[in-house]
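Lecture notes, part 5. Sequence design as translation. It can be helpful to think of inverse folding as translation between two languages: the language of shapes and the language of residues. The source text, in structure tokens, appears below.
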């Protein structure tokens, strides 16, 4: 299975990790009260941690013990890195070498489209660069989370926490931000920092860096370190340019949309100054990348704003990142295809490069299956809870996009609803990747072509 379908192997290991984490969180040792956590809640929390979502059915600060918090923290770190990437890093650490099989495993974790027969190896990260990518993953995780911890801890000390709690909460928030999970360990949550530009700025930077993806971080590192060289390695690749351009565009559009729709809402930004409104709306826009560390209750927002957040969460962050959603490059390819069709171009072109039709097929498949998963889960939970569409849709898209922003539905769900939302988080984290690999693996060459006939479209 490892050789024939690395994506299926990853899915198997991912699901096995969820079972292990469910068992660990079900132990009395994992709770402050020393009691067994109900199975539905343990499953939901395990899936939310491994899938770096951040939704919860329990009070994170009061329910889990230190052991439970450590288990959850370890789960979100593993989920953020990626199962096959972590396995390749551990293998490289033990054996001091990276064979072809390990390179293919790590490569399939970042781009399942490599399974396409006859596909060009003109990828964002070539097989020869996988070792550098794995080093970049490990170093960026350590360096960025350490830097975020050092920036957050003094602010927590100033807020009145003792040194040990400030360090623990600082590291927890740093990991939660960079992995785009959204868990908050403090009893009062982020409410005391809702108007603090320093804390919100640090968290937003952490979420943004995690959402652009490890290949982009690796490409930017190579671009900076080789600034004096005149070679093809100094050029930023198409994936990096598309990811950064689309991510920044969605952040700005979401920023302006949230500010424009909520500036006169007394329950959210109506009582704030112009600069506070711009800061809060910009922060919320970044959190829809998949961060989930919200400071505004979505139920207090206008319905139009919630719909904007739905769209932003559904898109999510960059490919091979800690963020979820259908990915910004997927939506970028679809927009570029629509633009090429409107202009009458035969090829999809951007940044002096041509995008193959196979990539468009994958993008269309991911959007269709993602929309279908969201629709089925929304209908099922609405039927179980009788809650209105806008609230349930918000929660389901947040689960599918592994975002973690909540409209309060998760805590009110019956056990059946918790399992449905858990399956939605699982599908949002691994389903689209597995689908992409399945579509790629089933691409076959035929010795004949059927007669062409055009249906009426549109």
């Amino acid at each position: 299975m490892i050789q024939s379908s690395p994506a299926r192997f990853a899915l198997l290991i991912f699901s096995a990790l969820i079972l292990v984490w469910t068992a660990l969180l079900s132990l009395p040792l994992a709770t402050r009260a020393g009691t067994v956590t109900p199975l539905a809640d343990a499953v939901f929390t395990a899936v939310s941690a491994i899938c770096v979502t951040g939704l919860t059915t329990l009070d994170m600060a009061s329910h889990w013990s230190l052991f439970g918090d450590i288990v959850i923290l370890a789960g979100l770190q593993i989920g953020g890195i990626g199962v096959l990437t972590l396995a390749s890093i551990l293998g490289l650490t033990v054996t001091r070498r990276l064979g072809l099989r390990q390179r293919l495993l790590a490569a399939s974790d970042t781009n399942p489209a490599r399974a396409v027969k006859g596909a060009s190896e003109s990828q964002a990260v070539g097989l020869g660069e996988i070792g550098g990518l794995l080093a970049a993953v490990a170093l960026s995780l350590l360096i960025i989370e350490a830097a975020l911890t050092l920036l957050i801890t003094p602010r927590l000390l100033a807020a009145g926490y003792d040194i040990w709690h400030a360090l623990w909460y600082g590291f927890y928030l740093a990991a939660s931000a960079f992995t785009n999970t959204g868990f908050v360990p403090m009893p009062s949550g982020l409410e005391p920092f809702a108007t603090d530009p320093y804390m919100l700025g640090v968290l937003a930077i952490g979420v943004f860096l995690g959402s652009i993806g490890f290949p982009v971080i690796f490409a930017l590192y190579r671009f900076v370190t080789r600034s004096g060289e005149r070679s093809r390695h100094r050029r930023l690749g198409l994936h990096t340019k598309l990811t950064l351009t689309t991510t920044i565009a969605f952040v700005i559009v979401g920023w302006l949309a949230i500010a424009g729709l909520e500036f006169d809402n007394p329950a959210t930004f109506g009582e704030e100054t112009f600069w506070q409104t711009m800061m809060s709306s910009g922060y919320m826009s970044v959190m829809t990348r998949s961060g989930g560390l919200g400071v505004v209750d979505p139920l207090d927002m206008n319905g139009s704003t919630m719909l904007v957040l739905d769209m932003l969460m559904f898109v999510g962050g960059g490919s091979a990142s800690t963020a979820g959603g259908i990915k910004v490059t997927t939506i970028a390819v679809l927009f570029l295809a629509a633009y090429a069709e409107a202009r009458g171009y035969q090829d999809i072109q951007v940044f002096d490069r041509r995008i193959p039709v196979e990539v468009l097929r994958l993008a269309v498949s991911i959007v269709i299956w993602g929309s279908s998963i969201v629709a089925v889960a929304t209908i099922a939970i609405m039927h179980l809870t009788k809650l209105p569409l806008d609230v349930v849709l918000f929660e389901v898209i947040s689960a599918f996009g592994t975002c973690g922003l909540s409209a309060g539905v998760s805590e009110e769900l019956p056990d059946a609803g918790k399992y449905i939302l858990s399956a939605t988080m699982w599908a949002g984290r691994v389903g689209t990747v597995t689908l992409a690999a399945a579509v790629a693996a089933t691409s076959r060459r035929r010795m004949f072509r059927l007669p062409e006939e055009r249906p009426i479209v549109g």
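The translated text above is only one of many valid answers, since several sequences can fold into similar shapes. The radius of gyration is 22 Å.
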